[in-house]
Specification:
The protein is built from 18 helices and 28 strands. Helix 14 runs parallel beside helix 15. The longest helix has 20 residues. The protein is globular. The chain starts with 11 loop residues before the first helix and ends in a 6-residue tail after the last helix.
């Protein structure tokens, strides 16, 4: 296929060899909806002669069908590849495009402008060396401009271009341009982006994009492309201390044991001494294997396999580093968290945290405040909503090696993952380890749960009764406990209403409060199991995530989920406390089954259909199952 406006014929091998010698710049475009990001990238691709003739033909056809220029070429359609984007006129996903000039290779990420897709913008920013922030000259600096700029500052991008677009629609007014620059400068100084280059452009017409515009005689700076071609990007990662996340333990043969991964930062040479985290063991590098064989050294972003001189225990998620500049190790942090999910972040809910190649369980223990990106004010909140940015304390299931994000992005950045859906729900940056984490240690004891349970001649367990209000959970749990007590078993019952008179009296019924309610009860039940008791827990506990969190607090086989399955209509007809009637009248908010969801168990150990079973029959079924599971002998 021929290129549009084909440059003088040069042998392909010569051109490829020349490109190999040029540097690569990754940059992103961002800004509000319809600021012209896709049009700008389309213009760069077109003017740099990176469009094939069949692509141009398709573009011309698409411009007639989907374009906004009355049949003339609509450059935005080169990037807005999704049909939904073309029909709506917006960019949804992050679109990556490659182009090159005689001076440099480029990978550009076109990120969405709509507030709903700010999470995608964070994805594009995570690998960018520079950012081009577009502003519509007619609109000036808007909320999304500030939000994107704040995120750019958070992820550490410092090479920023403010491209004031659509100057042709304001008659290339210098006064308009100067005011926008002044407004942005005032905001940028507050967030650490005081240094930036402002360029007046028209992406549609090409003014100051790849050629200087006669329409802006008052502007004597570079074009956007020439600036990007000359931008010096320091290879910061190579200047940092050596960090290497182990991705895979490679046993290629009986005499070979290597550790594969990508050098996150710094350099490593054959013979270098390295420290393994979290164990702290010391060894030295004996071989560095690349795709084409042995290497003398490897640097940041190179994928290699390292072999060590000593047979030490190394696993996926471990971190190799320079011994005299080792990372920290902690399980509690203060972090900046960007929330990327439609469902809000709830303190106390358990998530997966992935840092490097290491994945551990994590709980946001405290949302300290949320940042208002317009005013930069700190506001109190109980939850973090979609696109919200907050400062949080976070606790992990085990200590992880880390650096502060300000020192090393590769070992200071992380993502949060929903444990039920495996969807990425948040992106975070470690500020520092909490000092209290260094002062808390496990105290060893001689009497454990096995000893306590043995004294009681029983196996400890949590019997977790879950279901709608009025399902009969407490009634059945009470009957089960009576049967166990008569048989001489040591038990305790935690009832949702009773606990709210004391331990959880400070909690309401919002989703965030419900999560904290179950978190506390899970921890109490865990202590009782440790004491060797059989614990009846009767709570609505509407969310699967929190029931799963409670399950994971104890050993396998010690958590018995009992689903008291009662149809809403039946539970509502019983309504022993009149709660459903009040909820229907709007007197009770966030009532499960009415205006708050209930997530039924997917694979409960015991399911009780109370539309068919009486309370006594249901209790008998539970006792029979406990005998079957070996929790108790014949009762």
């Amino acid at each position: 296929m021929a290129l549009v406006n084909v440059i003088p014929a040069v042998p392909l091998e010569t051109r490829l060899a020349a490109l190999e010698q040029t540097s690569l710049l990754r940059f992103m475009t961002c800004g509000s909806v319809d600021d012209g990001k896709s049009t700008l990238i389309g213009r760069l691709l077109y003017d740099s002669k990176m469009i094939f003739d069949d692509q141009l033909a398709a573009l011309e056809e698409d411009s007639k069908r989907f374009g906004t220029r009355g049949g003339a070429i609509d450059f935005a359609l080169l990037v807005d590849g999704l049909a939904a984007e073309r029909e709506q006129g917006i960019t949804i996903d992050v679109a990556y495009r490659y182009f090159a000039t005689g001076k440099r290779k480029f990978i550009v990420a076109d990120t969405p402008g709509h507030e709903q897709y700010t999470r995608n913008m964070v994805t594009g920013a995570s690998t960018a060396d520079a950012a081009v922030i577009l502003v519509d000259a007619r609109q000036g600096v808007v909320t999304q401009t500030r939000r994107h700029s704040y995120l750019i500052a958070l992820v550490g991008i410092r090479s920023v271009v403010l491209a004031v677009n659509k100057m042709d629609l304001v008659d290339f007014s210098q006064a308009v341009f100067d005011k926008i620059v002044a407004d942005y400068q005032a905001f940028g100084e507050k967030i650490g982006l005081a240094s930036f280059l402002a360029i007046p452009i028209s992406a549609l017409e090409g003014d100051n994009v790849t050629r200087c515009s006669a329409s802006t005689p008052w502007y004597d700076g570079p074009t956007l492309l020439s600036h990007l071609e000359s931008l010096t990007i320091a290879d910061r990662k190579q200047s940092l201390d050596f960090r290497f996340w182990v991705q895979w333990v490679n046993r290629a043969g009986p005499d070979f044991r290597g550790f594969a991964g990508t050098v996150s930062s710094g350099k490593v040479k054959r013979g270098d001494t390295v420290r393994l985290a979290p164990s702290g063991r010391i060894s030295s590098v004996t071989r560095i294997l690349g795709p084409d064989g042995d290497l003398d050294e490897a640097a940041a972003d190179q994928s290699v396999t390292l072999t060590l001189a000593h047979e030490i225990d190394v696993a996926r998620g471990d971190l190799l580093s320079t011994p005299d500049a080792s990372p920290g190790l902690s399980d509690q942090f203060e972090v900046t968290l960007v929330w990327m999910a439609d469902r809000p972040m709830l303190p106390g809910r358990s998530y997966w945290l992935k840092i490097g190649t290491r994945t551990v369980s994590a709980i946001v223990t405290d949302l300290k405040y949320v940042v208002n990106v317009n005013t930069l004010e700190h506001t109190a909140a109980k939850t973090l909503e979609l696109n919200g940015i907050g400062i949080c304390n976070i606790g992990l299931g085990q200590a992880v090696p880390f650096d502060a994000y300000a020192d090393n992005h590769e070992t200071g950045g992380f993502i949060l993952i929903d444990r039920m859906t495996n969807a990425t729900v948040g992106a975070g940056m470690i500020l520092f380890a909490l000092r209290r984490s260094q002062n808390i240690h496990w105290q060893s004891v001689d009497i454990d749960r096995a000893a306590r349970a043995g004294l009681k001649h029983q196996k400890p367990a949590i019997l977790w009764f879950t279901g709608l209000s009025g399902a009969g959970k407490s009634t059945i749990a009470n009957l089960v406990e009576k049967r166990l007590h008569i048989a001489g078993k040591h038990t305790y019952m935690l009832d949702g209403d009773n606990v709210r008179h004391g331990l959880n009296r400070d909690l309401g019924f919002t989703d965030a409060d419900r999560v904290e309610n179950i978190r506390r009860i899970g921890e109490v039940a865990k202590l009782m199991v440790d004491a060797g008791l059989i614990v009846m827990v009767s709570f609505i506990s509407p969310f699967r995530s929190e029931r799963r969190m409670a399950r994971e607090l104890v050993a396998p086989g010690e958590f018995i989920e009992i689903y008291v399955n009662t149809p809403l209509a039946l539970a509502e007809s019983r309504d022993p406390k009149g709660l459903y009637k009040r909820a229907r009248r709007g007197e009770i908010k966030n009532f499960t089954g009415i205006d708050s969801p209930y997530e039924p168990p997917e694979e409960p150990e015991i399911a009780l259909d109370t539309s068919r079973l009486s309370a006594e029959e249901a209790a008998h079924t539970v006792i029979a199952k406990l005998i079957e599971f070996g929790i108790v002998a014949a009762v």
